[in-house]
Structures are given as C-alpha cells and as structure tokens.
C-alpha cells in the first residue's frame, strides 16, 4: 500500500508566528525534497515528502487574519478543512518573499514560468530566533554556571530553600564554595514510594561527571508503604524487607561524598531533593534547561532518545533505573553546555516530539531519529548567497510551475502567460491546469475597491467590539446587600475573569463579567443561568447588540471548527497547579495527546483553566463524560467542548490586550454603515470561499495545500497575515 504524506506542526496552544522565510522553507522542501539544498522546515515537518502529489498555494491578496475572523461565518470551507493555522508576519513585498525574488530575476518572453538565476538557497536559520531556548539563553555558548538555577528560579519551582519554614529539619549539604565553570557535575535521581507520610525515598543514585555510579542504594521508608508504584519505581515489598539503610544514613553519605563546589544535575530535581529532605544551593534542572513554551517540560525519556540517542525507561524493564536516569540527566546537561543553545535549538525538539506522538497515534511507530551525533560536528556557516527562486529549481528538474491570477497581481520578475481578469476566470483555469502541475500558485483578490470599503482601523474596532461582547455576560438580579466576593468566586469557577463590575443603572443590582476565554463565558451561561448565586436566583445572559444577534450561530460553528476537533476545555483548576500536576491528573485519560495551560500575556501566570487535546474526537467526548463533576484536589471541574483552543485563542488574547474600544458600541457603528456595502462584501467573501472549495475538491489526494492571507505592511500601518495548511486525504479534508 502506498504511503501517505503527512504534515506535523506543534501549533496547539503555542504563540506561533511564522515569517515569510519560514513559509518559504516549507514550500521549498515540499516542492523539492532534499535536493537543491532543501531541508525540513524549522517549524513544522513533512513526512514522506516524496509521496506528495503536488503543492498548491492559494493567495488571497490584500487580506489579513483580521478579515478571516471578521468574515468567519462566510469562510465555511476554510475553517472546516484546514487544521493547522499560523500567524504570518506581514511583508512589504509579499510576492518577492513568497516566490524568492531579489536575485535579479529577469522575465523570459520565450516561455512561461520563472527565469533561471543559477543560485542556490541555503537553509534558513530564521526559526531559531523564536525558539524558547534561544530566547532564554541566547545563541552563544556559556559555561555551566550560566545554567544553574537562581534563587528565584528555585523558589518558583518548589526547590527546598535554606531558611524556609517549609524546610524545617531539612539537611543542608554545606556545599558553600564559589562555583566556577569547572566545578564538578553530579547526576542525582531518586525513586519514591507512597507511604502514610507521603512520598518517601526508597532508592537513591548518584553518578559523577564520567558517568561512574558512586551511590545506588535502597532506603527503608520511615512509615508504612501504601503504594509501591512498582511500575515506575521498580520497588517491591520483597526488595525492601532486608533493607536497614534509613534516610538519615543517605543524607550523611551524600554530605560526605559531595565536594564543596558540587553542582547537582537532575530532571525535575526539586522532587528528589524534597523527598531526600536536603537543601543544595547549586543545581541544573534539565526539565527547565531544555526550555519549552508556556512552561511545559520535555520528559527525560524523550530527551534521552532525541538528544543522546539513548533508550531509557524501557517498557520491558520493571520500573525506572535511578542510576540510568541520573546518568541521562547528567549527559544532557553536559551536551547542552558543550554544544551551546544554538546547536540544541537546531535539534527541533518540539517537532520531534510531535513526530513521535503522530507515529504512535497512527500505530506506525517509526523510530525517533537521534539528533545528538549530528550536532557534534562544528560546521562553518555557509556564505549568505542571494536567495534564488525555488521555482527555478523545479524547471531545472523538468517540472513546470504554474502561476495563475489577475493581471494586477503579477509579481515583477516573473513571466506569466496564465493571467486572467477575474476570480472566476482564475478558478476555471485552475480547475483545468492545477491537476497537471506539481507546483501551483493561484491568486485571488476581492479587489481594491472592496477592501477600501472597509477601513482597517474601523474593521479592527468592530471585530474587537464583537469579541468583547462575546466574552461578556450579565448576571442578576441580586439582593441590595449581596456579597460581590461570593459572586466572583462562583463565576471564576468557569474560567479566568478579566473584569467584574456592578451595574447600578438597574432597579436591582446586576454584575457585568468579562472573561478572558470564550469557553468560560459560554460555560457561565450554560451552567449558572437560573441557579442560586449569593442568595438570589439569577439569570445569566450575554449583552444584546446588533453584533450579537448571530452569536449562537457563531458559537455552534466554532464548535465544528476542525481546529477544535478533539479538544475540550477544563475550568476550576487552582492557579498554583503546574502542567506537570495536570499531566499526572489527566494522564490516565484515553488518547490524550497534548495539554495546554494558558497564561496571562503580561504577568506570565497560569490561568485556572486548560485545554486537553485528544488523538480521536470520540475520545474527547468520552473525556467530557468522565470529567463531568470530577473533583481534583478539592476543586470541582467544569468542562465543555473547546471554542477557541488554537490560533483563535492566541489572536483573541492579542486583540484583548491591544488598544481600542472595549465593546458595547458596535450597534451605533452598524447603524451608521450603508447596509448594502457590508452585505455585498459578505456575499463576495462567501463566493471566494466557494471557489476555494471547488479548487480544493479538484486536487489529487496527498496534495499539500496552503492558503495565505498575506497581511499588510505599509507606512500607514501593519496587519498580520494568516496561513492555513493541510494535506488532502480521501475524505476531502486535510489529513494531518
């Protein structure tokens, strides 16, 4: 059976903004594979590229992501088909950045297509600048002291701190000597069992910088073991029966073994030190060293395979081997220090993790390719040659690139014979010619007059106003002496609240609540309407404005959006919970693929809600039933289907924090508009969506399709673009 190509992009919950160089990376690799210096893009990954039937880029000129969300209901096909979405940095010259102009391309009059420059395209490093590792440490190599946790970082990550009331009775290692970049590293790992006291150490391992095991000892817990956790700890009742070593013995031995300038290395080392009831001033935590976005962490097993090429914590073994884990953490830290942040970022760990999950989900467990050996070399940087258009390379290989669009959209330097005067003619030509081409660019446009009829500043205000209204609910009436704190507490169980005010213009008090996420507002309407809150039976409703008349329709369509497929929203979490805590709580849910814990864009603090993404939609439905009424650590959870879990969530956060009016005035603006012009534009957008639907249906299976809203960059201002992408499967939708 022929393999299908697949596209993987780690865009769930991430702040993913792609520039045109990164888009160019994707298109070049999709079109050429590993030939002509083409390499896997730095921000996503294509599997079985050689099996792609073709590449089609649909460009909607003069449109931005603002237009996509303003006309969200009209873009029915786009939102139901394309799973992967990303913000596109606007460019002053979009055609040049997309087609690879800038190398003195000259049009040819003898043949359609692109003239050849003979230049080659070096792989871009643009994606590295946005890597969380680079943002945290920079690109230059540094000594080990640059990677030890500061006191503030230790406090934030629950490390035992000297003098802290919570650490009374803990043993201090007395390693007070000044650390240098030549201080010795020691790997430490413990295995714990659950006892009547809590987590108690039952095995301790310490390895030196050469990987030699200095300590590998079983420890008798002080209290009765409730759960040996043998699957993970490897500890059994039989193993502990003859053991006489106690925690105090291990503490004394560690104090004697560690030099006064020792640096301890471990993965989530805070848990080990807490269990050991020991305080050590200088640590490197590999779960934090290999930084990820949104406070998430890579597992040690994954890092060992992806970076070192080593298999640890194998399923055939009974539990984890702490000596093996300590050695793996130590070698990871050594690798990071020796190679530097830039080389680590080049490993593309986020994409490798997505690849691993994708392979598991499709039951095609292709081995994860270890990257450690690749970066051991120290290659010199290639010279920065002028970037040639990769369409040239296609022609050299005998492939004929196709460029279709309106005459006024023709980019300079590209000679085209297939230009038409209308979107309809472009579509007709595309339906005939695109199936015959391996690479096609199809350009549509609403026309300058249509875009001009909707000034960008006004359009932005209207969209922001509608989003604000959708995030807002009114609750009441309450008694005159009602407790506002009780109301806030009850409504915050639905999700993070941005603002809460008392409405005093009414006969009885009402409360106006603006949430940070759509799901929270909808959950409040669904679960708290006609219930008793603060001693009063209340109604919960959204504001009634002209913009909100289609709110129910919009919410329904958001639930059906393919980006939200298999994703659920969970509220009622405690602000102090970390993603690790949630992984432990929700890890038992069937087919759980990813967890996203939102955080405030300004403070960086986690919110009291999260999104859970499942490999199968039916698993998400099952999870909703399982979690309904679930109580976790004393907090009752509230759940529903996701409405804005991916790109829309990120975009809404940006809109929320940008300047402009905050809602409530959309009605006045709508009444001032000429009613025909807005309706006319909606019809044209709907027709454009239908054109794209027809073109997409005509494509062969296994075709990569990328739809681009280029955005605008000019002296008057900028508006970010939007990209949607997927590989067509047998069902007519993007396969992955």
From TrEMBL:
Classification via SMART domains: EXOIII, RRM
Pfam families to which the protein is assigned, alphabetical: RRM_1 (PF00076)
Domain RRM: 471-545, 566-644
GO CC aspect terms: nucleus
A single GO molecular function term of this UniProt record: exonuclease activity
Region listing for Disordered, in residue ranges: 107-127
Superkingdom of origin: Eukaryota
Keywords: Exonuclease, Hydrolase, Nuclease, RNA-binding
Cited InterPro entries: Nucleotide-bd_a/b_plait_sf, RBD_domain_sf, REX1-like_exo, REXO1/3/4-like, Ribonucl_H, RNaseH-like_sf, RNaseH_sf, RRM_dom
Biased composition (Polar residues): 107-118
Keyword Hydrolase: yes
Transmembrane residue ranges: none
Listed PANTHER family: RNA EXONUCLEASE 5 (PTHR12801:SF82), RNA EXONUCLEASE REXO1 / RECO3 FAMILY MEMBER-RELATED (PTHR12801)
Name this protein carries in UniProt: REXO5 exonuclease
Organism expressing this protein natively: Eubucco bourcierii
């Amino acid at each position: 059976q022929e393999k299908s190509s697949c596209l993987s992009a780690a865009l769930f919950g991430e702040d993913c903004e792609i520039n045109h160089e990164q888009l160019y990376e994707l298109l070049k690799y999709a079109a050429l594979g590993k030939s002509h210096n083409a390499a896997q893009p730095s921000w996503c990954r294509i599997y079985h590229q050689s099996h792609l039937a073709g590449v089609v880029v649909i460009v909607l000129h003069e449109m931005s992501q603002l237009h996509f969300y303003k006309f969200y209901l009209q873009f029915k096909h786009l939102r139901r088909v394309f799973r992967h979405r990303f913000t596109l940095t606007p460019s002053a010259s979009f055609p040049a950045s997309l087609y690879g102009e800038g190398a003195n391309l000259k049009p040819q009059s003898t043949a359609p297509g692109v003239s050849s420059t003979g230049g080659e395209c070096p792989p871009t490093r643009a994606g590295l600048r946005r890597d969380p590792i680079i943002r945290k440490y920079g690109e230059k190599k540094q000594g080990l002291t640059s990677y030890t946790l500061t006191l503030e970082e230790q406090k934030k990550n629950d490390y035992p701190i000297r003098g802290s009331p919570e650490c009374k009775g803990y043993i201090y290692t007395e390693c007070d000597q000044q650390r240098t970049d030549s201080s010795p590293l020691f790997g430490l790992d413990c295995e714990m069992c659950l006892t009547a006291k809590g987590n108690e150490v039952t095995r301790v391992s310490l390895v030196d910088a050469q990987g030699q095991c200095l300590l590998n000892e079983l420890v008798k817990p002080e209290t009765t073991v409730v759960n040996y956790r043998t699957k993970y700890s490897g500890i059994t009742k039989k193993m502990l029966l003859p053991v006489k070593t106690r925690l105090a013995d291990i503490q004394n031995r560690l104090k004697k073994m560690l030099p006064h300038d020792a640096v301890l290395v471990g993965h989530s080392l805070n848990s080990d030190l807490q269990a050991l009831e020991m305080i050590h001033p200088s640590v490197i935590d590999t779960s934090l060293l290999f930084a990820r976005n949104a406070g998430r962490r890579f597992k040690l097993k994954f890092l060992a395979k992806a970076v070192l090429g080593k298999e640890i914590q194998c399923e055939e073994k009974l539990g984890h081997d702490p000596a093996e884990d300590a050695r793996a953490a130590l070698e990871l830290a050594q690798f990071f220090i020796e190679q530097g942040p830039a080389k680590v970022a080049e490993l593309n760990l986020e994409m490798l993790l997505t690849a691993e999950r994708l392979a598991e989900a499709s039951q095609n467990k292709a081995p994860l390719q270890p990257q450690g050996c690749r970066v051991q070399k120290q290659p010199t940087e290639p010279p920065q040659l002028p970037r040639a258009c990769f369409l040239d390379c296609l022609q050299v290989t005998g492939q004929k690139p196709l460029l279709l669009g309106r005459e006024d959209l023709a980019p300079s330097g590209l000679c085209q014979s297939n230009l038409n005067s209308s979107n309809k003619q472009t579509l007709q030509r595309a339906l005939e010619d695109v199936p015959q081409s391996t690479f096609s660019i199809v350009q549509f446009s609403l026309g300058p007059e249509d875009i001009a009829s909707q000034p960008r500043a006004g359009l932005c205000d209207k969209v922001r106003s509608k989003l604000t209204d959708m995030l807002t609910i009114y609750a009441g009436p309450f008694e005159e002496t009602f407790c506002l704190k009780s109301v806030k507490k009850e409504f915050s169980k639905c999700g993070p609240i941005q603002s809460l005010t008392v409405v005093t213009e009414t006969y009885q008090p009402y409360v106006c609540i603006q949430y940070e996420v759509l799901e929270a507002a909808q959950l409040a309407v669904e679960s708290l309407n006609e219930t008793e809150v603060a001693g009063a039976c209340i109604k919960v409703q959204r504001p009634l404005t002209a913009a909100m008349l289609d709110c129910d329709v919009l919410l329904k369509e958001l639930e059906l959006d393919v980006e939200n497929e298999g994703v659920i929203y969970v509220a009622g979490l405690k602000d102090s919970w970390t993603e690790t805590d949630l992984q432990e709580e929700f890890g038992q849910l069937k087919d759980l693929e990813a967890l996203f814990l939102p955080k405030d864009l300004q403070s960086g603090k986690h919110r009291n809600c999260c999104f859970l993404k499942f490999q199968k939609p039916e698993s998400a439905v099952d999870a909703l039933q399982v979690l309904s009424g679930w109580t976790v650590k004393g907090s009752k959870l509230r759940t529903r289907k996701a409405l804005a879990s991916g790109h829309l969530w990120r975009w809404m956060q940006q809109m929320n924090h940008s300047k402009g009016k905050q809602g409530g005035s959309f009605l006045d603006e709508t009444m001032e508009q000429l009613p025909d012009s807005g309706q006319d534009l909606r019809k044209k957008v709907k027709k454009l969506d239908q054109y794209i639907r027809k073109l997409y249906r005509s494509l062969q299976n296994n075709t990569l399709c990328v739809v681009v809203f280029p955005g605008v960059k000019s002296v008057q201002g900028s508006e970010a673009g939007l990209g949607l992408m997927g590989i067509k499967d047998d069902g007519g939708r993007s396969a992955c």
